[in-house]
Amino acid sequence: MKVIRDPIHDYIELDELALSLIDTPLVQRLRRIRQLGFSNLVYPGANHTRFEHSLGVYHLAISLTKQVDEHQQNELQAAALLHDVGHGPFSHATENLIERYTKKGHDEVGGLLKKGAVADVLSEHSLSPSSIAKHIKGETYPGQIINSEIDVDRMDYLVRDAHYTGVAFGLIDHVRLIHELRFNENKLVLGVGGLQAAESLLVSRFLMHPTVYFHHVSRIAESMCTHAAGYMIENEGLKPGLLLRMDDVTFMMELRNSKGFPADIAKRLDERKLFKRALYTGFESFETDILKHRKKIKRVENEIAENAGVEPEYVIVDIPEKPRIIEMKARVMINGKMTPIDKASSLVATLEKAQLDNWRIGVFTPAEYREKVGKAAREFFEVKKDVKQFKLTEI
Amino acid sequence: MKVIRDPIHDYIELDELALSLIDTPLVQRLRRIRQLGFSNLVYPGANHTRFEHSLGVYHLAISLTKQVDEHQQNELQAAALLHDVGHGPFSHATENLIERYTKKGHDEVGGLLKKGAVADVLSEHSLSPSSIAKHIKGETYPGQIINSEIDVDRMDYLVRDAHYTGVAFGLIDHVRLIHELRFNENKLVLGVGGLQAAESLLVSRFLMHPTVYFHHVSRIAESMCTHAAGYMIENEGLKPGLLLRMDDVTFMMELRNSKGFPADIAKRLDERKLFKRALYTGFESFETDILKHRKKIKRVENEIAENAGVEPEYVIVDIPEKPRIIEMKARVMINGKMTPIDKASSLVATLEKAQLDNWRIGVFTPAEYREKVGKAAREFFEVKKDVKQFKLTEI
Amino acid sequence: MKVIRDPIHDYIELDELALSLIDTPLVQRLRRIRQLGFSNLVYPGANHTRFEHSLGVYHLAISLTKQVDEHQQNELQAAALLHDVGHGPFSHATENLIERYTKKGHDEVGGLLKKGAVADVLSEHSLSPSSIAKHIKGETYPGQIINSEIDVDRMDYLVRDAHYTGVAFGLIDHVRLIHELRFNENKLVLGVGGLQAAESLLVSRFLMHPTVYFHHVSRIAESMCTHAAGYMIENEGLKPGLLLRMDDVTFMMELRNSKGFPADIAKRLDERKLFKRALYTGFESFETDILKHRKKIKRVENEIAENAGVEPEYVIVDIPEKPRIIEMKARVMINGKMTPIDKASSLVATLEKAQLDNWRIGVFTPAEYREKVGKAAREFFEVKKDVKQFKLTEI
Amino acid sequence: MKVIRDPIHDYIELDELALSLIDTPLVQRLRRIRQLGFSNLVYPGANHTRFEHSLGVYHLAISLTKQVDEHQQNELQAAALLHDVGHGPFSHATENLIERYTKKGHDEVGGLLKKGAVADVLSEHSLSPSSIAKHIKGETYPGQIINSEIDVDRMDYLVRDAHYTGVAFGLIDHVRLIHELRFNENKLVLGVGGLQAAESLLVSRFLMHPTVYFHHVSRIAESMCTHAAGYMIENEGLKPGLLLRMDDVTFMMELRNSKGFPADIAKRLDERKLFKRALYTGFESFETDILKHRKKIKRVENEIAENAGVEPEYVIVDIPEKPRIIEMKARVMINGKMTPIDKASSLVATLEKAQLDNWRIGVFTPAEYREKVGKAAREFFEVKKDVKQFKLTEI
Lengths: 395, 395, 395, 395
Hints:
4 copies of one chain form a homotetramer.
Chain A: E1 2-6, E2 10-14, H1 16-22, H2 25-28, H3 50-64, H4 70-82, H5 92-102, H6 110-113, H7 116-124, H8 129-137, H9 152-165, H10 174-180, E3 181-184, E4 187-191, H11 195-213, H12 216-236, H13 248-256, H14 260-270, E5 276-281, H15 297-308, E6 316-318, E7 331-334, E8 337-340, H16 341-344, H17 346-358, E9 361-365, H18 370-381
Parallel strand pairs in A: 4-7
Antiparallel strand pairs in A: 1-2, 3-4, 5-9, 6-9, 7-8
Helix pairs in contact in A: 1-4, 3-4, 3-9, 4-8, 5-12, 9-11, 11-17, 12-14, 15-18
């Protein structure tokens, strides 16, 4: 048993299984992947890594797994520690590419757990990689602890991200949430005494989105990075699967050592010469259904670039996925009935819709192309005449 | 210039005007009035007073008043310091009575400022008591700093109440709010960069309501106290206006030294033998419009008591005012237009409605009468058959 | 099992024994005794009570008592909850008087535990009042948890006092201290891994002394209060034992309702017309051994008053007890040997001596007598000519 | 004017000069140098960088520079922002090497400021690189703000390092320190009201040393890194001056891409296969003056290695510099006299000596050589027979 110091949870106790898993390259690699990708360009303190986040998730999971038998406890604690090994360099910057080319989300990690040092450790402890992989996807009922609307992943990262960025959201009442979460008929259910704590968690997440997670500067840096990596996959034979072995450092080196577009992007990121917003506005600004363009975004970018007369790589169209309706709704136990949380709370019910307020469509391009790309993008999307660009005053 | 230490704002600088006002009995009395009345029965740390809150509000007001001329600055800073002098003992416990009998809300303090030591200080500084009184009511445009939807009063008390109760809500980004609040066409307007901070403040307030401000235990103690004081006004010649001179201590002594019902209530409060909930449920449980009973609540209590066969004083019906639509909506500046905040934010738009989720109607009575009073109350209000009593699991 | 919210320890679980003890008048009275007496005249936030402090001490004791058997656990937890019931109104303001007239320190509470509701609860749980009283005095070896150089009392109050006053000391690493404290040969011993945490605790306490606990304003208010109460005992037949039943409120009422000197003091405390410093300086300013005057302080006050030509009650001489050498030194386990902490740490070794730097001798009197009383006091004590009065710049 | 968010100081305002300096490669490089080198191997949260620390120092300097004229203000603020540009990769890990080979401490940055983008910015603002370099060394009297016993560097890093490691020391009362620091006769002097705050700062630093800064794990990793770099300088032609252009990433790449010893060290650091402690004990364990070995440490390592029969590179002898007597003592103004702080405070007076308690001499080697290298080292140093190895229990 070893105890380590964590700024969020004070002390985290690690048992032998945890220590063995931590010592594998799969987990050690997370030390070199920043939790928030390029957010440190906006929030200089945001240098924390997926490694410490994973320890935090493990720590929270321990309290919640007391309700299941010992074998499942071990499985779930391993799942907590391993839940992020499917992330590529700069976390979300490479997520889309990995999904596009490997057809696997960052939580589909079964393949990674079945080989190498992690597989050995799991086997020594008679734990099944595929069960753990299912827990990580939230496909089992106790796996909801790790992956559902109110899970230990979220409980950790909201507080942690607030601690390192310094933003004034993200106070979560872990003790009460954990005290009120329990299993009922194979489902994770929240006692009614935890309703306000859950509302607070979901609102924190809601507020973190525009302020941190979708801040335009990190969004621009991320999409520049994504484009550069995509370019290398398409044109320079970079194997998409390799991204899962790289960390932030080796990936940036890869970009720097390449030629042409990716090298230019690397230079721009290093020198903070980021692309700028040629168009940046909300859903309501579009006459048409903007989302239909998501599937053929490359063609859209090319067309706008052509109309504007710039190289196709230097136009980035960013249409974030529409806030999806979460399938695995949290349930609250009210008067003996399991009630979906959005029925139990008008506040939660509104969050999904409210998220649209903060969703922004962006077209990014180097400063010198800003005007002509902006014009071409507005024409292409037939942006409403009278809508001025929404301006987020930065403090 | 003197500087004092405050747990919320670190250091608060006090100039000569502030020091003179603080030294008056009107402000010193606030040292002995707890900010949260009887909440310390639930949250043992909640012993903070209106005095320190007033210093906090003054401190925040200083940053916001830099936009107006010096004379107005002084007026507004005085208003900030004096905004709570109209509170009676245990703050909200006596507020209804003062309003009922003096026809004045706790923010109608003109009368108090026109005499005594405060009047002298104001006159020495050539400040007008009636202007200050108007600022406190939020009736002037710069007074909106002190009394409106997003004001320094709220900015202070949310954080302060969270600090002393220990609840995990109430993180407010003061710096950003103050940075984004400005006057435009004689109205207090929030820059769009402060939208998330404002949403966070309003949600914090929303979450504090059921958790702290309307916790049933403090609500019960408060209404016991209100009833005892009402009894003394009606039957023992207590002058309602006198409440504004009493503090928590002298008021409790008054109760203890009385006879009959008020003395019994004092004993119960001292020994924590509080009334219990005979009925406690949400608006949706009532077939009829429950609010119509608010005006003749005494009659309702009497009838339920009679039906239950208990003394009329020992039935308390608590129908809190319905969350009212706030007239003085905060405005956000979006693309050069002043937009009401509930138009700019779907989250804020929902808060008013969502508050109803947490609103509870209560009938309180001593433990031994609980069953029969509960039955009588349910019959009287024709509570829906199938609604079980909503049970807030306390942690 | 009930759980309550505490700003310092988040949540505190209370078992049936604790709940029963809390419901006794002896413990409830602590709700109305401020932890820091009159410190709220300096730090407006310092309104916290011995009640919440006692809950905090109980909470910390639970972790430490896991090492002893269940019966002792219960005894020690009861001792933790009850350790402060021997305090009179305003804590330290009446402590000297109670000691002088009852010959009992505030931790000699055996008599209080043997009668009334507390005795009943203890008897129901087969717990011995006298054992508990011994634990509270630290006379048993597991009682060192509660009363020794590094105990749960101190671990709680340092953090709590810092939280409510807002001063920037008092960060204590509870987890590590509790992790490293253990029993060895019937002694409480600290593992070497807890040395820095212990140093930090002892330095925090050291820094809190001049800043909070011995701030001259609270010291003046306290000694005014002590003098008024002493006067009532000597001249108006107030029974000293009665102080242990009074709380802050009933005691102040007693003063207010008296006549002559105590009534004047009550008025001065209510209106913040405090005595001022006629002399205020460190030990090094005196040619002679200033401490010899402690035993006949009344005579000293009278002589100074006579020389100055003022009424004897209006001169207060404050010679605080010299920082005593603590008998029950904490021990640290180094290389298998129990080492006194001042041998293990040069920092701790110096603290005792360093405390003298901050020790102040004061002579207090109303503002209008300041000059003549100052002169008389300097003459009486033969204060060195060249020593100017040490001036603490207040921020 | 731009405002950025910082977890320590909330918001930091940056004026045009600061923004221009930040945009230079010299400052941007600090984004990629971790403040605490390899401490994140012990404290997983310690990933913060010299970049954000520099912003924090700049922020604190602004408050303190209000006392000097505008030109000096600009110089000092530039100095604050630039004070750490002389650090090499992993901060202290390469510091010794840079000093040894370039004969320049990390605060001797004059050469760096006289060329390139920084020089251009300074020249545009009519600021002198050499004046700024002197401020950074603390050689001018206003430069004491930046480099002396109580300076803004220390005020920032103590709090920042505590925030990211999570240790419970490092609460600093910035406001009071800044309020009490002023210039008197061309010296930085602290008002007596800041004495406790200064004591607290110096004790925090004292406690951070064994807990964080000299934790054996980071000390081992650092010295491995120093040895590898030294090897490359001696044997592979690495230019020492180049270290000042590298960041953590490029330096690690350099090691990884080398051969032999440095490549092995890189692998060990990446896989956390660190050297272990063959000897680890305090000064008092040595019969002879251990410090005399500092000058010819290479020879000592070789001799121990030879005696133990291992390759010379694989023995690291770590004799940290003896806590030196600080020349530039802080002064406190007491009764109108400037008094050295160690005369004004017995606590401070003891700190220098107390530091020796925590000083550890270490001999580090791979796990498999531990025993034989330990034996050889003990013989070489003639370690007292009866001294068992001091064992820091890790939590």
